[in-house]
Amino acid sequence: QSALTQPPSASGSPGQSVTISCTGTSSDVGGYNYVSWFQKHPGKAPKLMIYEVSRRPSGVPARFSGSKSGNTASLTVAGLQAEDEADYYCSSFAGGFTLVFGGGTKLTVL
Amino acid sequence: QVQLVQSGAEVKKPGASVKVSCKASGYTFTTYGISWVRQAPGQGLEWMGWISANTGHTGFAQQLQGRVSLTTDTSTSTAYMELRSLTSDDTAVYYCARGTNYGDSKYWGQGTLVTVSS
Q: From B105, which residue of chain A is nearest by alpha-carbon distance?
């Protein structure tokens, strides 16, 4: 179980779009359509933003979208807002009853 | 409304064990599983394991296998995570989260700070 690979940082100006990647292997991201994305603000619990690659839980703005191609999943945040500044983590089902997280990406809204 | 309420902060000495509880309410406990995730200071999220509240099936992160136990008490709708042989590297905020073993954890506990220090 190796951690999924995410860029350490990403940034964009208000109103712009930004995409964060999450690269795994055929044993996790590429093998299953069970990639989730979490938003983490300091001192708060993680918040589920995307599950099953592209599904949004109720209450999550449509500005957040997910996709996957091969062993790489992506989270796109459109129309960036100041409150989107946070750490973002991907996770993937890795078979059996196991999950693996990415190392996290710090999103800065310029 | 769905709530997960975790036990309070703990301070442990190296070599000791810690047991964190996670009491669920607002849903039928056995319908979902519970994941445990931790975050060490300045580090990312680390998945620790998952337990089905229905069957008791478990899965663990390879690096923690043998040191972590997950259990549930369906009579009180409470999940427990026990971590043994603590070192300073185990200092972290520990979270429980409701979801399937596929990672769709929408509801989270408030977190429990475990500090390991001599």
A: A48
